[in-house]
Batch of 2 targets.
Target 1
Amino acid sequence: MSAVTGNASAGFTTRRRNLWPAFVARRLLRLVIGIVVVVTASFLIMQLVPGDPVRLSLGPSAPFSLVEQRRADLGLDDPLIVQYLHYWKGVFGGDLGSSILTQQSVTSIIASRIGNTVTLVAIALGLTLFFSVAIGVTVGGLTHNGRRPRLLGAYRIVASTLNVVPEYLYGVALVVIFAVTLKLLPVAGDDGFKSLILPSLAISLAPIAGLSRIVRVQTEEVLSQEYIQFARSKRLPALRIYLRHALPNLLTSALTVGGILLGVLVASTVVVENVFALPGLGSTVVTAITQRDYPLAQGALLILGGSVVLVNLIIDVIVSLLDPRSLMRDS
């Protein structure tokens, strides 16, 4: 019997090893397609803006010669395909152009503001994954097989309500409670790590509510599996059953959905950074569009979109390492 089991395990390992090249090739292809879409979308933003962005940024009283000179400097007089190819060249070379208003390098402006946004999204994603898994597993375990129906009903009502509240309302409520009333945290601005706590909570509360519901359902399904019943029949401690047998299967689902939610978290920074006056890429996008500084808006959106594509690739790899069966499902 042990020889049969060993052969099956060896066969599974060999098959998994053979699936890796195709998995890597598919993920790299998705990465390339995603980058092409992001770069093209960020480039077309300026083209779709009604009117002349240079004239809009300089104002109606700007001399015609100045407008034409600025357009020539930005390459806006070239045919669209030439501009598109030049934009790709700048992306590969790390040159995203210059701000129309300040004439500063867009790359340098983004570099000075990207830290807050990366930290904000990283904290929010960590909070989302940790609390959604903790809450979902706890509620799923407590209500498994129809137990505690009142707890399940209350959880569903609370989670459904929290999931539909927009992030800016969370931001206002958190400011009133923790900044104005309790005076524990700064109201707004860039004051180190403390200034990131409330924005992180504001953009993670709704995703926590939504993802925890998915984890709860997955917990119900996993706890009904035969291998969990077998582990219980061996009288293993409940904590060991959850951590060693149930949690790895739940983490793959949470990480997969978390990768999808990453785009939501990044998009939320555009609103939340402005609510908390936090200098980051989200607030940069809004300010640049308001001031008609479209090269800066293009660059910020390019970095935001590209980071989502890249992190999703990393999450796919992590999921495949945690659950090798995903390689087979993906083949």
Note: The chain has a mean pLDDT of 82.
Target 2
Amino acid sequence: MKITLLANRDLAANIALNYLIPQLRGHKLTLFLSDQIGGRASVPQPLIDLQFFEQQLFNRIVFPAVDTTAPAAIKNGDKLKTFSGLQNKLCRPIESLNQINQPCGLDKLRASRPDVILSIRFGKILQEQAIKCARHCVLNLHSGILPAYRGVMPTFRAMMNGDSEYGITLHTINNSAIDEGSVVSEARLPLDLSKSYLENVIALYRPGCRLMLDAVKTITDGEPLPTIAQKGRARYYSFPTSEQLLQFQARQMRLYDPRHIMRLFERYR
């Protein structure tokens, strides 16, 4: 089966792809990356700092350094691979795809001839023509429980709300409405408020990728993919404001923990 993967060029997406891609053996894989989520004009400083650890630190410093010693890293099965390190599992070179709904972007997407499109943290909203490129379906892995936590940074909102558990949802994308597709499956974890937002987010992707792999197997076996409509009160969240970020900090919660970042760095080295 031809599977097209859509992901963002960030740390959490890379870790998710490390869980997912090696388990998709036997399928023809194409990977397209967005360079950021959304198109924010004004960003509070704490989110700029978070973006440094999520993107710039690894994309500009860590990953290029690791790629120079890629052959040694590949031999070590417990190490995480950079985007480039995952290239040998793909059937074509990784490309950026920030204009997925424009003619040039649609041409790239159609050229991958996807039976299924799998989206993980992809930074652009798919419009009708992009969705139609998939022969079977488009599946998105959303790092929040739906419909209560639609939108961006749902784990931040769960932490702010003091939830005892949080989760990740696999759902279909049928139109351009954000996070409103039918639910395929979900996974829930205890929410540890002593851990940083970023650490809690990354923890979701191991069980989340298992949901995605189960769905791929169902489709590959020729069975119908069971889905249910979203139930309960729906709420959409946008990026937190400066005031909300200050409240988060005042409650002794952190967006990132440098010690956690260093542990992840060691997993790539």
Note: The CA atoms of residues 111 and 133 lie 9 Å apart.
